[in-house]
Amino acid sequence: MKKTLLTGLALALTAATAIGLAGCSAPNGSGEGGGSGETLTVGRILPLTGPLAGLGTRVAAGSEIARQIINEEGGINGVSIEFKDQDAPDEEAARRAAERLLNEDVDIVLGSYGSAIALAAIPVITGEGGLYWETGASAVAITDGTYDNVYRYASTAQQLGADAVNFSADVIAEKLGKAPGDLKIAWAGVNNTYGSDVLTGMKAVADADGMEFVLEEAYPVDSSDLTSVALKIRDSAPDVLVLTSYDADAAALGRALRAADVTPPAIIGTGGGHVNEAWMEAMGDSGNGFFNVGFTPAVNSEGLTPEAKSTYEKFVEKFKATNNGEAPGTFDMNGFAGAMALFEAMKQAEDLTPDGIAAAADALDLPERSMPDGLGVKFDANGQNERSFFFVGQWQDGEMVPVYPLDLGLGEPRSIPLPGWNEAR
Fold first, then answer.
1. What does pTM read for this prediction?
2. Cβ atoms < 10 Å from Cβ of 127
3. Rounded to a whole number, what is the distance in angstroms from the first to the last CA of the chain?
4. Cβ-based neighbour number of residue 154 at 10 Å
5. How many CB atoms lie within 10 A of CB 167?
6. Which candidate, 66, 49, 163, places its Cα nearest to that of 110?
7. pLDDT (tens digit per residue) in 141-166
8. CA within 13 Å, CB half, 211
9. CA-CA-CA-CA torsion for 253, 257, 262, 265, nearest 10 degrees?
């Protein structure tokens, strides 16, 4: 049996109009932000240990700030949100995590950073009528129409690849004094759906623009010695090298490129491995100059709507206050914005069941720049946000600086062509 909870709206009515909520805890009497004292439990399936923990914990930190802010503002129509966390370092752990949540009557779930993790948990949750809300995992299969009640706030890995090549055509080609169609493009990355989806998106745009694709080199996710890949990159002599990596393999390939003194004129990461502090910790100053297409840790808030600007500033202030003055990272922002989109759907829902939230999500129509990270929200029939896009950032002086799109950027692209490993970047 599902536990019964009154929504904030129903509190003004008689007990006969109470709405049954899936996955709700008993009233805790706190309300956190002066709400009714009722709570709704949302599951979180994230890699909190293991090789993806550095990014999963960031999503957790950002979404926790979103939870705190929404509760301080009175919750979801008076109902406070609490999280039930499940660690999912791999696919089997993700399946077990989903089963544990369902066994505890929690069937509204936020996840997950990793595509393999999401694709393992989604059929379990949605197979029992639950709702799965993905903040950042990028595999195309997540929103290909296979599953009902799946919503992804961010865009797909194919779009990551497409945007990397588009940025090369729009910005890098001119800096190198070349026409876009004269660029030589290389790709190296992990041999999973994340990597193959990025590569598919890249090749579609490169082919359309007449660019020459000179290398596509996949390697195992757990690779620690990528010297052979670095040498293949050297031999292919690309103008633009696009990489699809996680933290550990990004560092391994970076070290291999440095050891072999391989420096393509432009290097662009696509997503995980070149976007957070782990990259600079591994590479030191030589990590500067690398671009990354993906999420952003910060935006020029003047490019946002007034409400989004206020929310963004609350996020940064609260994050710094709870993290010893540290500014949010890229996946802190992704977790925050993705969770706020879920809470917006909840606010609009007639009832806080999976189907009620799904119906509200289907009707969301928020223009670009209305979310705190600059995105909008409009889901297609498969639950994919059509108003998501990726930023281009660049490591400059040890900081990831968003440089594109221009109205949300905080700096301009530089170090094109990329200086050698022993030169200042």
1. 0.79
2. 12
3. 60
4. 27
5. 22
6. 66
7. 999 999 999 999 999 999 999 999 99
8. 29
9. 50
Q: What is the pLDDT of residues 171-200, one digit of tens each?
A: 999 999 999 999 999 999 999 888 999 999
78 neighbors 35 (Cβ within 8 angstroms): yes
Alpha carbon distances (Å) from 18 to 15, 32, 338: 5, 22, 29
Distance of CA 330 to the CA centre of its chain: 8
For residues 127-138, average pLDDT: 95
Choose among 395, 186, 190: nearest CA to 285.
Answer: 395
Q: Tell me the three state secondary structure of residue 95.
A: helix
Residue type, 165: V
Percent of the chain at pLDDT > 70 equals: 92
Return the structure tokens found at 152. 């992804």
Instruction: Tell me the two tokens of residue 355.
Output: 């189907």
Whether the predicted pLDDT of 17 surpasses 50:
no
Q: Could you tell me if 189 and 271 are in contact, meaning their C-beta atoms sit under 8 angstroms apart?
A: no
Q: How confident is the model at residue 54 (pLDDT cuts 50, 70, 90)?
A: confident
State how far Cα 298 lies from the chain centre: 13
By the 8 A CB rule, do 118 and 111 touch?
A: yes
In this structure, which amino acid lies at residue 148? D
Lookup result for tokens 């950027």: 409
Please check whether residue 313 is in contact with residue 301, taking contact to mean a CB–CB distance below 8 angstroms: yes
> Residue 408 is which amino acid?
L
Find the mean pLDDT for residues 47-72.
95
Alpha helices in 223-305 (DSSP H): 227-236, 247-259, 277-283
Q: Which residues pair with 42 in a beta bridge?
A: 83
Starting from the edge strand earliest in sequence, which strands make up the sheet with 150-152, in order? 80-87, 39-46, 108-111, 131-134, 150-152
Q: What percent of the chain has pLDDT over 90?
A: 83
Residue 139: its pLDDT value, please?
86
Residue given tokens 């003047």 in the structure block: 302
How do strand 399-404 and strand 391-396 relate by DSSP bridges?
Answer: antiparallel
